[in-house]
Specification:
The structure is a single chain. This protein is an alpha+beta fold. It has 3 domains: about 290 residues, no CATH class; about 110 residues, no CATH class; about 60 residues, Orthogonal Bundle (Arc Repressor Mutant, subunit A). Helix content is about 40%, strand content about 20%. The chain is built from 15 helices and 17 strands. A hairpin with a 4-residue loop joins strand 9 and strand 10. Helix 7 packs across helix 9, helix 12 crosses helix 14 and helix 14 crosses helix 15. The chain is elongated, with a radius of gyration of 31 Å. The relative contact order is 0.10. It binds zinc ion (ZN). Zinc ion binds next to loops.
């Protein structure tokens, strides 16, 4: 059976504010259970919430970056339901007039050769719930309110994603954009990026959507992809066996790598939304919106496109560079000063330079590396003045001090010997001591040249120019052959 996959997402992104959504408690992951909560975020009767302006600002940034319209008058509503991690008996969310409506996320597919716009319904602000901890050992449950009242945005998409791969690209784009804007750190292990995923299947090309099932509260991106692939398989098997899909809500078990049915989906959940009388209508002027819009700068997806277009970088390299503003700056300045293919600069930054930064646990700005020195070093490799191996040693020094790579190469004896006469002398000696080289070469075993180059390099302590050496050896063998 040929089936189309339809996926819609509700992405929860915890905001990186200093304090919680409606009180001044610290917004910080972890800590001793119930050590950062107060009477407001634990929902004591008679307390009044106080809206966090920073959260509204961050949500505004997120909405503008994802091309939403901004409601100049936004309201907060109570979403009523009972759960032990929600002590008020309701969550303060947005229903009637959410801060951001419409919009889209542009995702890049097939190694950046294609793009697709995934339309959004809205982005609204709400508060997170506390955390239930179920202890099998003690046969009881605990509750930690440290997360209760942490601000988050919910990004609601239309059902327009058609594969796990598209969903992954969508989530990665959101994650990169939120990190870049400082809206959220999107730390998967701390649960600051979570999704509710709706999946349905329909006959290929059919205009009618199939029955959808929802996978609740999946953490991160790879998990979500696995959960969706698993759900597509489950629904395909049901449909192929001629049965009908039952609308259910599923729970994803990351450790077991499988989902289980939590409950049958209720027809319509009635939350009895009404405007929260404790939070005033928030008015945001057009000028304020425009000011935030101007402050956004170049977004990650725009950066990736530009790096591919202007420098011919691969999608992967452009994506990796786009995650780090300092790396982009180094890359662009290096590429502009050098006479080499920009990809070479990207390779060094993604390769040895990133490795050294990781090992030392520092940022690029903590190192002494300048674009001029990096550029000179790559030029030296291209001109056969140093080998790639030597450059690996040189780049370590360049990160520790602002010094010319030429000086480092001289000091450390890393300059390649390109002097024809001295190389020829050594090559002659090697050929004289190893007469089998000439013989084997003449018998057609041209691989033997590699051995001869290796022998010369040993005598030169690895400093010979291998390309030149090969040429010289070949020349010597051919000349002798004629004698
Ligand atoms: Zn509090």
């Amino acid at each position: 059976m040929d089936l189309d996959v339809v996926i819609g997402l509700e992405v929860h992104v915890e905001l990186k504010t200093r304090s919680k959504m409606y009180c001044s408690c610290k917004n910080e992951f972890g800590g001793v259970a119930n050590s950062h909560c107060c009477e407001i975020c634990t929902g004591m009767p008679g307390t009044l919430p106080n809206l966090n302006k920073e959260a509204v600002q961050l949500a505004l940034k997120a909405g503008l970056a994802l091309n939403c319209e901004i409601n100049n008058r936004t309201t907060f509503d109570r979403k009523n339901y009972f759960y032990p991690d929600l002590p008020k008996g309701y969550q303060i969310s947005q229903n009637e007039a959410p801060l951001c409506v419409g919009g889209f996320v542009e995702i890049l597919l097939n190694n950046g050769t294609q793009s697709k716009k995934i339309n959004l319904v809205q982005i609204h602000l709400e508060e997170d719930a506390g955390k239930m901890i179920h202890s099998a050992a003690e046969d009881r449950s605990f509750i930690d309110f440290n997360r209760s009242g942490v601000p988050l945005i919910e990004i609601v998409s239309k059902p327009e994603l058609s594969s796990a791969a598209e969903m992954k690209a969508y989530l990665e784009t959101i994650m990169n954009t939120m990190r870049y804007l400082g809206v959220s750190d999107c730390k998967v292990e701390e649960g600051s990026l979570r999704e509710d995923i709706n999946v349905s299947l329909k006959p290929n090309g059919s205009p009618h959507l199939g029955v959808r099932c929802e996978i609740k509260n999946v953490g991160g991106i790879n998990n979500a992809a696995r959960a969706v692939e698993c759900e597509i398989r489950r629904q395909t098997e049901i449909l192929e066996s001629g049965k009908e899909i039952e609308p259910v809500t599923l729970r994803w078990d990351e450790e077991a790598n499988k989902s289980s049915v939590m409950r049958k989906k209720d027809a319509v959940v009635e939350y009895r939304y009404f405007q929260d009388p404790d939070i005033p209508v928030i008015e945001i002027s057009k000028e304020e919106v425009e000011e935030v819009r101007k402050s956004l700068g170049e977004l990650p997806v725009q950066k990736v496109k530009r790096l591919m277009r202007d420098y011919g970088l691969t999608f992967t390299d452009a994506g990796l560079l786009a995650e780090d503003q300092e790396k982009i700056q180094l890359f662009e300045a290096t590429a502009k000063t050098g006479e080499f293919a920009p990809q070479k600069a990207a390779n060094w930054i993604q390769g040895d330079i990133s490795r050294i930064l990781n090992e030392k646990n520092i940022r690029l700005s903590d190192s002494k590396l300048t674009p001029q020195n990096l550029s000179k070093m790559i030029n030296m490799i291209d001109q056969n003045k140093i080998s790639n191996t030597a450059a690996k040693i040189i780049v370590e020094r360049l990160m520790q001090e602002d010094i010319s790579p030429e000086i480092v190469a001289q000091q450390e004896g890393l300059l390649q010997l390109s002097d024809q006469n001295s190389l020829k002398e050594i090559a002659e000696a090697v050929l004289a001591e190893n007469p089998q080289v000439t013989k084997l070469f003449q018998e057609g075993k041209t691989n033997i040249l590699g051995f001869a180059v290796g022998e010369c390099m040993k005598r030169l302590n690895g400093r010979g120019n291998p390309v030149l050496l090969k040429e010289i050896i070949l020349d010597l063998i051919l000349t002798r052959g004629e004698v």
